[in-house]
């Protein structure tokens, strides 16, 4: 004979989540958000380090030493598979998180993710369209000690590369801020209005 009243559940079921989603049912969004924040933070930190240490330090050198040092920095980064992975994965992870949250009708989370993706996309475009061609021009000098036009190349390089890197830092930080906002919103309970 049952000790429970008629129609009573033998075990407490707990409150149902809005929208009928079971707790722990979303196993992909949180990892995507965390990975996006980490990758974007790494990229922002890299660009920021150039802004506050590498470029000011190089500015103290003569043009020949400046060119030789920058060539080596560029070669090291260009040859790093880890850098290439993080640089590209940052956008892919953020876009994927935005798509997943939008499809789950978490628009309050998807909106800052879309902003973060747009900001980082600008970083990627500027890098490919401006920074990499300048790096290629610098590499084309060959040995700076024997290059004839090293002074003109370095003047042009400094005038564009340095402010463009500040731009990349700024938009990486904006992207990171938007990602943090999305992460905070994701941690809040869903409301019926947020679920559409």
Architecture overview:
This protein is mainly alpha-helical. The protein has one domain (28-187). It is built from five helices and no strands. It has helices at 29-58, 63-78, 81-103, 107-139, 150-187. The longest helix has 38 residues, at 150-187. It is elongated. The two termini are 46 Å apart. The model is unreliable at 11-25 (pLDDT under 50).
Strands, helices and their partners?
Layout: H1 29-58, H2 63-78, H3 81-103, H4 107-139, H5 150-187
Helix pairs in contact: 1-3, 1-5, 2-5, 3-4, 4-5
Number of domains: 1
Q: What is the string of helix and strand elements?
A: HHHHH
Regions with pLDDT < 50 over 5+ consecutive residues?
Answer: 11-25
Our estimate of the beta-strand percent is under 5%
Question: What gap, in angstroms, lies between the N and C termini?
Answer: 46 Å
Radius of gyration: 25 Å
Helix content: over 70%
Shape: elongated
Number of helical segments with 4 or more residues: 5
**How many strands?**
0
Q: Please state the average pLDDT score.
A: 87
Category by helix and strand content = mainly alpha
Biggest sheet layout = none
Keywords: Membrane, Transmembrane, Transmembrane helix
InterPro entries: Anthrone_oxy
Transmembrane segments: 30-50, 81-102, 109-132, 166-184
Organism: Streptomyces pakalii
């Amino acid at each position: 004979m049952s000790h429970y009243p008629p129609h009573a559940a033998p075990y407490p079921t707990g409150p149902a989540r809005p929208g009928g989603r079971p707790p722990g049912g979303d196993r992909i969004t949180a990892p995507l958000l965390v990975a996006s924040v980490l990758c974007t933070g790494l990229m922002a930190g890299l660009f920021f380090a150039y802004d506050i240490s590498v470029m000011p330090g190089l500015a103290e050198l003569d043009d020949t030493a400046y060119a030789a040092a920058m060539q080596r920095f560029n070669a090291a980064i260009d040859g790093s598979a880890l850098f290439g992975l993080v640089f590209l994965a940052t956008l892919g992870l953020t876009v994927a998180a935005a798509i997943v949250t939008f499809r789950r009708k978490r628009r309050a989370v998807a909106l800052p993710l879309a902003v973060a993706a747009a900001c980082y996309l600008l970083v990627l475009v500027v890098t490919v369209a401006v920074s990499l061609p300048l790096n290629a021009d610098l590499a084309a000098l060959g040995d700076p000690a024997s290059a004839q036009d090293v002074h003109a190349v370095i003047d042009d390089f400094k005038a564009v590369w340095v402010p463009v890197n500040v731009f990349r830092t700024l938009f990486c930080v904006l992207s990171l801020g938007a990602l943090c906002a999305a992460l905070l919103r994701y941690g809040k309970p869903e409301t019926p209005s947020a679920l559409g």
